[in-house]
Design goal:
Helices cover about 50% and strands about 10% of the residues. It contains eight helices and four strands; from the N terminus they run H-H-H-H-E-H-H-E-E-E-H-H.
């Protein structure tokens, strides 16, 4: 972390602690705002928050790891949400999952080495009539076939060969 990034982090945490200091549940609210700012909760921010709130670092990590919402790693530039709900599963989403994992060399819940894609498995996207469904960022792809996956992913990558095997 550069000196400038460190200063921004310290200022952000000081501001959040000041905003939430006397409110019940302040730790969760501060963590939410930190995650909104960074996209995840960076370790240096957790350390500084521990100092600023006079709260053990273990308590902060207890909250971060208890709630599924909080992330400890930076998110990918593009978030792939693959539905494994009943309708999608019955229509072949498990096949799509394996295809994405193979093409991107990434596991569920992880980010590709180049930081371009994050693969999340979800239980329902509310598009059962379009099953199987993949959502990338805010765009929904319905009735996806295995043969279409490479083409869909390549829309998000100018250098396909570097990220997609």
């Amino acid at each position: 972390m550069t000196q400038e990034e460190n200063k921004i982090m310290l200022d952000e945490i000081a501001s959040l602690v000041s905003k939430w200091k006397d409110k019940e549940g302040n730790l969760i609210m501060i963590l939410h705002e930190l995650q909104n700012f960074y996209g995840y909760v960076p370790r240096p921010a957790a350390l500084e928050l521990s100092r600023a709130l006079h709260t053990p670092l273990a308590r902060i990590y207890e909250v971060i790891t208890f709630y599924n919402f909080f992330k400890l790693e930076p998110p990918g530039k593009h978030i792939i949400s693959l539905c494994l709900g009943t309708a999608c599963y019955l229509k072949g989403s498990a096949i799509l999952l394996n295809e994405i994992k193979g093409l991107l060399n990434v596991e569920e819940g992880a980010t590709t080495k180049d930081g371009l894609f994050q693969l999340d498995v979800v239980r329902c996207l509310g598009c059962c009539g379009l099953a199987p469904v993949i959502k990338i960022d805010d765009k929904v792809y319905g009735k996806v076939q295995k043969s279409e996956v490479m083409g869909i992913l390549s829309q998000y990558n100018n250098h396909q060969e570097e990220s997609v095997k």
